[in-house]
Amino acid sequence: DVPWAEILDFELCCYDQQAPSLVGLNEDFIAAARLDNLLSCFAGTKALVSGVGNEP
């Protein structure tokens, strides 16, 4: 246990607790927390890597 007087700062993080699910007319899409961030990071990194060396 730490006395309240010794706590200098704290950080609170909220996380989506909803389970992933299939959505759409034929359940063609996956809806999941943080999945859009992972996909956009992958696509952006792939675009940067594939563009290396194509500059005039």
Characterize the structure shown.
The longest helix has 17 residues, at 35-51. This protein has a domain at 22-48. The protein has a two-stranded antiparallel ribbon. The protein is of the alpha+beta class and 56 residues long. The protein has one helix and two strands.
Give a short synopsis of this structure:
With 56 residues, the chain is of the alpha+beta class.
The pLDDT mean sits at: 87
Number of strand segments? 2
- The portion of residues assigned to helices is 25-40%
Indicate the radius of gyration in whole angstroms. 21 Å
Protein structure class: alpha+beta
Helix count from the secondary structure assignment: 1
Uncertain stretches:
none
**Major beta-sheet overview:** 2 strands, antiparallel
Distance between the termini: 62 Å
Strand content: 5-15%
Strand order of the largest sheet: 1-2
Task: Describe how the helices and strands are arranged.
Blueprint: E1 21-23, E2 29-31, H1 35-51
Antiparallel strand pairs: 1-2
